[in-house]
């Protein structure tokens, strides 16, 4: 870019647009570095609409770094249930423990020091440092890459151009970030990418940067990644509680859950329904079908009601199994799919998350 006037113009236009159009999101009302950290980790790979409720619930349960550090991992995963990519929750938890133990519960104030913490990369470090502490550190995520590539006329994005293009994008972001309002500038650029400069349908006619944009929509559309599909089936096995003194009815029921092994590469330690040996389920046994997407795979899930006596013969055991009252299951670290099935079976209360389009959920570590 190099043209100082142009840099000033881009900053001014973008910030003015942001002031008028920014979405009212709960983490935008905070300068607390911990809250910003949690929001940035949740927002990676997850839609804003999904994050909003989870963010509030998470901060209500873990209002400080120390409270998060002291919590058992299963409690942290339970609050993360449905957000997917559970490795983020584990890393956040570990980093909180490190900060509580070695830094008196306070996050470092510079992007350089933040980057040294487990689970905090350049992007998150720059976001926290710029928003909470006003450091002029440029944030570069997928949205920002796309906006800057289009602005500068650099082709289809960093994936197409490799390391050299990444360096150019990073250099341009450093050049553009407004030293007077770095947090707002970073958020404005991300907001532009999320709401106007969309991957397949950029809204150039109403874009505040259109007069300085080299492409203005004249760019190749990225090809959609092909989705794979896969069929799986799970057992929904419910029994009446055997514990003496339990009331009959919903309060006396228990559902069978299985914990994924700690060595599993995907969602270790999370609880799910027992998986059936056969993906095909006789029509008369079918309780429900569920669509669930994980990364580029569409899962077509059949759920079969299975009697307690039959469940061992029909399913594959991969970990510990427990009969759990639904009220207890609601607070466990369930996979997003297990939570969805139990909710649809009316064993769990409906949460806002269960209304989310299935293809936008992700359950990958
Ligand atoms: S003018 Fe169009 S392509 Fe350029 S930054 Fe704005 S929305 Fe993106």
Explain the overall architecture:
The protein starts with a helix and ends in a 21-residue tail after the last helix. About 40% of the residues lie in helices and about 15% in strands. The C terminus is likely disordered. It folds into two domains: about 210 residues, Endonuclease III, domain 1, CATH 1.10.340.30; about 130 residues, Nucleoside Triphosphate Pyrophosphohydrolase. The protein is an alpha+beta fold and about 375 residues long. The site of iron/sulfur cluster has 15 residues, from helix 9.
Write the layout of secondary structure elements.
Layout: H1 4-21, H2 33-43, H3 48-61, H4 65-70, H5 73-80, H6 87-102, H7 111-114, H8 122-133, H9 142-152, H10 158-176, H11 182-195, E1 228-236, E2 238-240, E3 253-259, E4 271-272, E5 275-276, E6 286-294, E7 297-305, H12 311-314, E8 315-316, E9 321-324, H13 326-330, H14 336-344
Parallel strand pairs: 1-7
Antiparallel strand pairs: 2-3, 3-4, 3-9, 5-8, 6-7
Helix pairs in contact: 1-11, 2-3, 2-8, 8-11, 9-10, 9-11
